[in-house]
Design goal:
binds flavin mononucleotide, six-stranded parallel beta sheet, Rossmann fold, alpha/beta, 8 strands, globular
Length: 210
């Protein structure tokens, strides 16, 4: 039978550096929450890189996220079922959100929409992503949020208030970055690139294990 190997890319030196930096992902159980933003296409690369590094990735998507990228894409890249509804128990007979939350080493929401930032800041749990996160104990398990939105949406007082609340509630914000936006303007609100998200996740995982 053909043996499965993890693909590598780049020069031997780059490969060695990458495999050192990403060793922390081997067998790590990571939730990638995807919400409704254009940047969801970049999350496909994040999931692929995590899978290549040996992580066990569970992708959960809000209904809006499935309008941007299909669950099938994430299923193929993670090699695992994708959660799109709180009402379908894909892998567990226990309440699935509790079992999933309790099994995680880390979670990231990328992209994290303005709407999801607001729901998380209020402690709402009305879709499968926020429901799983509602049951994650952040004193043990890091939860990273990678906001992505138009610069005006990002600058809204409500968004900035929500970000402050989330940071003081123990969520880790990654970005957003400054640059070209899907609405063909330049400003702050762009999702960080997959490599930056991987680096932030690796750092959070390493810190949680210390
Ligand atoms: C074409 C299109 C692009 C959108 N892009 C973004 C985006 O980049 N960031 C964002 O916060 N909201 C964006 N939205 C709005 C969200 O999809 C909407 O607020 C939705 O309720 C988010 O739901 P969710 O947070 O549950 O996924 C976009 C909407 C449309 C129609």
């Amino acid at each position: 039978m053909a043996k499965r190997t993890r693909p590598t890319s780049g020069t031997p030196t780059a490969r060695a550096k990458n495999s050192d930096a990403h060793a922390v992902f081997a067998d790590a159980r990571i939730l990638v929450g995807v919400t409704g933003g254009i940047a969801a296409y970049k999350t496909a690369m994040l999931v692929s890189r995590l899978a290549q590094a040996g992580a066990k990735v569970t992708v959960a998507m809000t209904p809006a996220a499935t309008r941007f990228v299909t669950p099938l894409t994430f299923q193929a890249l993670s090699g695992r079922p994708v959660y799109t509804s709180a009402w379908e128990h894909v892998e567990s007979h226990d309440p699935q959100h509790i079992a999933t939350a309790g099994s995680l080493d880390a979670a990231i929401v990328a992209p994290c929409s303005m709407d999801t930032l607001s729901r998380l800041a209020c402690g709402r749990a009305d879709d499968v992503v926020t429901l799983i996160l509602s049951a994650v104990d952040r004193s043990r398990t890091p939860v990273l949020l990678a906001p992505a939105m138009n610069a005006v949406m990002w600058a809204q007082p409500a968004t900035q208030r929500n970000v402050e609340t989330l940071a003081s509630d123990g969520f880790t914000m990654v970005g957003p970055a400054d640059g070209w936006q899907a609405c063909r303007t330049v400003g702050v609100g762009r999702m960080e690139e997959p490599e930056a998200l991987l680096a932030a996740l690796a750092q959070a995982l390493a810190a949680a294990r210390r």
